[in-house]
C-alpha cells in the first residue's frame, strides 16, 4: 500500500467548475474555474458544454503550472443518475451514459462531473469515481409511504457533505460511521436535515421537493392547502421555482445572503429578525423529528455548511437540541476533500468500490 495518494476532484456548478488536487488530506491546489455565462448559454443542454469546460480547465492548469502526472484517481461530482445507495462508484460506460443524458430527468451541471472525470482519467491512465452523489437514497420503508396512494417519498439532499461530516466526526471520536447514529445537517445555500443509522441515511427531507426548513432560496414545508391557494392564478413554473429558487429568505427579504439577513437581525430589524429566527426554529423542529426516527438513540447532532460559521445559529441550535445529544459544528463545506476521501478509502481497501446498476434502489412496495 502506498503512503500517499493524489486525487484530482471536479465539481461543476452553473457558471464555474471547482477543481482541486488533493494528496491524502492536504489540498495542493484548488481553484474555481469561471466560465463565460453567455458562452454557456450557446450550448444545447448541459452535456454539450463538456468540450468547452474541459478546455477551460486544461488552460487554467497550464497557466497555473499544475501537472496531473502520477495522479491515482479522478473524482467527479455525480449528477443525472438513478437513485442508489451511498458509496464510491466506478465511472463505467453505463454511469457515464446516464450522467450524459440525465437519466433521472433532472438537468444539472453536476452531470458534467462524471464526464470530466472520465476525460482526465483516460488521459492520465487512472480510475475515475463518483462519491455519494445527490441521488443517494437509503430511506427505510417507513419513510417512503405518504397519505396519497401512489405518491411515495424520495429525497434529494447534500449527501456528499452529510456523509463526509458523519464519517469525519466518527473518526474524531475513535468510532466507525457504521456503528453510530447521527442527526446530520448541512446548513448553507440549501438546508438538509437527515437521520443516519449505522452508516445508512435512513430518513431526511426532500429539499428539491420543498420539504424541511425554509432556506435562503427554498420555501421549506408548507401546508398543502396553503400552497394550492398560493398557486391560484400563477403559472406552474413560478410555483415550482418557490421550492428551490425564489422561496425562503428570497421570498421574504429579496436576498439569499444569509450573512446580510443575520446582520439585519442582530441589528434589531424586526422582519429580518423574525425570518432569521423562524428559519432556525424550523431547523430545530426537523432535528427533533430526525431524533425520533432514531428512537432517541442519537450519538451526536452534526452541523456542516457555510451558515454554521454563524455563532448565533449554532448557539440557538445547541440551546434547543443539545438535550438530545451533543451538538458539533463543522463550519464550511469540504465537498472536494470528501470526494478525494471516498476515492482513497477505495484505493486503500477500506471500502469496496460499488458498481452502478442504473436500476433504482427502490421502485415501489410489493403490495402496490
TrEMBL record:
It catalyses: butanoate + ATP = butanoyl phosphate + ADP. It holds the Pfam family Acetate_kinase. Its main location: cytoplasm. Its EC number is 2.7.2.7. GO terms for cellular component: cytoplasm. GO terms for biological process: acetate metabolic process. It is found in: Cytoplasm. One of its GO terms (molecular function) is butyrate kinase activity. Keywords: ATP-binding, Cytoplasm, Kinase, Nucleotide-binding, Transferase. Coiled coil: none annotated. The keyword DNA-binding does not apply. InterPro entries: Aliphatic_acid_kin_short-chain, ATPase_NBD, Butyrate_kin. The keyword rRNA-binding does not apply. It comes from the Bacteria. Belongs to the acetokinase family. PANTHER family: ACETATE KINASE, BUTYRATE KINASE 2-RELATED. This is Probable butyrate kinase. It comes from Catenibacillus scindens. The gene is buk.
Amino acid at each position: 500500500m502506498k503512503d500517499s495518494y493524489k486525487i484530482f476532484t471536479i465539481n461543476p456548478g452553473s457558471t464555474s467548475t471547482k477543481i482541486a488536487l488533493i494528496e491524502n488530506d492536504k489540498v495542493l491546489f484548488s481553484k474555481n474555474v469561471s466560465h463565460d455565462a453567455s458562452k454557456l448559454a450557446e450550448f444545447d443542454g448541459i452535456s454539450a458544454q463538456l468540450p468547452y469546460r474541459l478546455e477551460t480547465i486544461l488552460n487554467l492548469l497550464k497557466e497555473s503550472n499544475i501537472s496531473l502526472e502520477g495522479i491515482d484517481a479522478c473524482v467527479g461530482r455525480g449528477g443525472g443518475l438513478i437513485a442508489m445507495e451511498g458509496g464510491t462508484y466506478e465511472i463505467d460506460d453505463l454511469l457515464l451514459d446516464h450522467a450524459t443524458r440525465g437519466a433521472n430527468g433532472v438537468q444539472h451541471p453536476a452531470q458534467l462531473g462524471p464526464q470530466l472525470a472520465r476525460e482526465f482519467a483516460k488521459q492520465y491512465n487512472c480510475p475515475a469515481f463518483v462519491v455519494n452523489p445527490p441521488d443517494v437514497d437509503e430511506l427505510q420503508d417507513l419513510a417512503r409511504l405518504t397519505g396519497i396512494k401512489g405518491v411515495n417519498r424520495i429525497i434529494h439532499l447534500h449527501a456528499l457533505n452529510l456523509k463526509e461530516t458523519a464519517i469525519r466526526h466518527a473518526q474524531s471520536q475513535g468510532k466507525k460511521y457504521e456503528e453510530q447514529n447521527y442527526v446530520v445537517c448541512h446548513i448553507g445555500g440549501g438546508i438538509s436535515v437527515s437521520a443516519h443509522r449505522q452508516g445508512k441515511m435512513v430518513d431526511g427531507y426532500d429539499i428539491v421537493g420543498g420539504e424541511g426548513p425554509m432556506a435562503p432560496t427554498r420555501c421549506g414545508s408548507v401546508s398543502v392547502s396553503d400552497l394550492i391557494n398560493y398557486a391560484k392564478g400563477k403559472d406552474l413554473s413560478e410555483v415550482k421555482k418557490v421550492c428551490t429558487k425564489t422561496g425562503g429568505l428570497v421570498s421574504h427579504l429579496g436576498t439569499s445572503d444569509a450573512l446580510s439577513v443575520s446582520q439585519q437581525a442582530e441589528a434589531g430589524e424586526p422582519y429580518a429578525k423574525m425570518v432569521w429566527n423562524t428559519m432556525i426554529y424550523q431547523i430545530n423542529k426537523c432535528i427533533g423529528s430526525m431524533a425520533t426516527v432514531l428512537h432517541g438513540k442519537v450519538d451526536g447532532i452534526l452541523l456542516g455548511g457555510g451558515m454554521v460559521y454563524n455563532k448565533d445559529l449554532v448557539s440557538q441550535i445547541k440551546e434547543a437540541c443539545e438535550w438530545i445529544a451533543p451538538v458539533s459544528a463543522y463550519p464550511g463545506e469540504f465537498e472536494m476533500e470528501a470526494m478525494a476521501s471516498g476515492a482513497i478509502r477505495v484505493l486503500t481497501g477500506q471500502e469496496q468500490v460499488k458498481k452502478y446498476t442504473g436500476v433504482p434502489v427502490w421502485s415501489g412496495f410489493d403490495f402496490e
